[in-house]
Task: structure prediction
Amino acid sequence: MYDLVVVGAGTAGSVAAHAASEQGLKVCLIDQKEKNTIGEKTCGDAVGIHHFNRLKIPPPKGEELANKIKGIEIFSPDLKTVFRIKGEGLHGFMVNRLEFGQRLLHNALDRDVVFFDNTTALDPIFKDECVCGVKVRNRRKNELREVFGRIIVDASGMSSVLRRKMPHDWKIERTIQNKDIEICYREIRRLAENIEDPEYCRIYLNQSISFGGYYWIFPKGNNIVNVGIGLQMINTVLNPRRQLYTHVLVNDPFIGSKNLKGSGGIVSTRRPLNCMVGNGILLVGDSACQPNPIHGGGIGPSMMAGKLAAEAICEAIEAEDVSQKQLWSYNVKYMKAYGAKAAALDIFRLFLQKCSNEDLNYGMAHRLVKENDILNASLGQDLKLNITDKARRVFRGLNKLSFLKTLYLTSKKMKEIKMLYSNYPYHIKDHEQWVNKVESIISARALI
Result:
């Protein structure tokens, strides 16, 4: 019997295991991958420095560090307008994902965390209406076994092996709708020549090429880039790899480039789950829909979730109470720390996905939202609009006044939902009422 069993040795799982073991808990970590491949995944590979500073986790260096980033550039569909956004909140790193993941894993193992690799979690084990363990299969030996813990963490990623089998009355969302998922494909490519301004990540908006998402070029060095595309999963006709090869890799700077590594995957692009705890279980990382709703970056939020989950777990073990009520503090702390910002960005994501290329071109060209306002919104502040009389006249002539009204409404809804998440209920009894308020804001009807 362990104090804690963590299913999934990705960023959130490894950080949770390490943080809990530092407090003296007996921890078991399980992952279906081979030990030496932990950390490798389809990812944009970018993470902000503020996450490391806040959590007091050493930033990447040496083989982990691929590049330092100053900011991002956002391109309109017609490529005529570029928002260059830089500032302290966007300083960060491009990491070599495998080396970074291996560091987090070994941090945990150095604290005597027991690790089972090549081991697939199959089902949660319940006792007295509480999760008390996990049924697993060791694929190397093809053996079934049961691993028991006082508390279980589901860090199993988008597959969410345990979450999907939780009781309905725990109010944990068991399935994620396709409209809130992006299907992605990315390659690490060596360019024929060095890329210009390698300290800026590039994001391209274009509904024809990357419906409901975007495509990106993230420099990992002078001539190495992470290039990929994400598509909203409701459109099953478009294939992300085909879209990347048809519309992106045929252009500069990819002429003469070489593919070093390619992979695909899916990521949630929505606010965090309304509830991330049950009796004896917590959800962290992709399993809890914690990536950024706009760009899908999940490294920073996952590190934060791992730390906060470990705090709640240690408190529960000390109190000898692993109930949902006792673990509820994890919900509250995460929503205040990141969930409020993520919920506001989810509203903005829904707005962007409804925009046509024409809307995006004119909106960016007339700077209806300025660069600094986008930066501030990404850091959790309110979205400010820059709608001048000139812009109103232009949009009136284009019969686009409805677009301006929707943008106003979006800004208003972002403020409302951020306030709601900042006041996440401290008690389970108030949760249903809170969820109803969230749904009234997030509903499609409310955002038209």
Remarks:
- The radius of gyration is 22 Å.
